[in-house]
Design a protein that fits this description.
By secondary structure, the chain is an alpha/beta fold. The chain is built from three helices and nine strands, in the order ββββββααβαββ. The protein binds S-adenosylmethionine (SAM). The site of S-adenosylmethionine (SAM) has 21 residues, from loops.
Length: about 160
């Protein structure tokens, strides 16, 4: 099997992939399920591996790139279509969960590897989330569809060097 260079540990429905079966990517998610959205469309969450980004089952320095798009919703109802589509954060543990997610992603990322982080500010500001990792992004891009969302690029340093 081809070695996977990219890890997406919260791939959801693989929405932003040009090729949803890209052989370079290991697609992970905590869920494996089919959902029907409010407009009748079927949403399939079908990861290659069912994994928890808080405890990744990979050795240190395993991937050249990581795509990290964790849930960003705190106030969505459990049965809302937004929660079905994107998952949601736990009110009492979201900081710990995302802190552990960043920490695990940077652990399995190779030195000089890139991590692309996506965040929507519907319920929580980007600055609050970036405070959960000691790593600093190199660049960021802000967009807006309904709510502001951000793409950030991190590069993993070597040893103790923090960017
Ligand atoms: C914002 S969505 C990802 C959307 C995805 N990028 C796409 O384009 O379809 C976040 C995903 O994280 C998953 N998730 C939530 N908690 C997780 C965890 N602890 N470990 C792995 N995946 C998790 C949810 O099931 C959800 O599919």
């Amino acid at each position: 099997m081809m070695e996977k260079q990219v890890l997406d540990p919260a791939c959801g429905f693989r929405g932003f992939y040009f090729n949803k079966s890209d052989p370079r990517v290991l697609f992970g998610d905590i869920r494996r399920e089919k959902q029907t959205l409010c407009d009748g469309r079927e949403l399939r969450i079908e990861p290659d591996l069912q994994i928890d980004f808080r405890r990744l089952p990979f050795a240190d320095n395993s991937f050249s790139a990581i795509v990290f798009d964790p849930p960003h919703l705190l106030r969505a109802g459990a049965n809302s279509w937004l929660a079905k589509k994107y998952g949601r954060l736990e009110k009492d543990s979201w900081q710990e969960d995302l802190r552990a997610g960043f920490s695990e992603c940077f652990r399995v990322l190779r030195p000089s590897g890139c991590l692309v982080f996506k965040w929507s500010e519907k319920d929580i500001k980007l600055a609050e989330v970036l405070a959960l990792t000691p790593e600093r992004p190199v660049i960021g891009h802000r967009g807006k569809i309904k709510y502001p969302f951000h793409w950030c690029l991190f590069v993993k340093g070597h040893g103790d060097v923090r960017s």
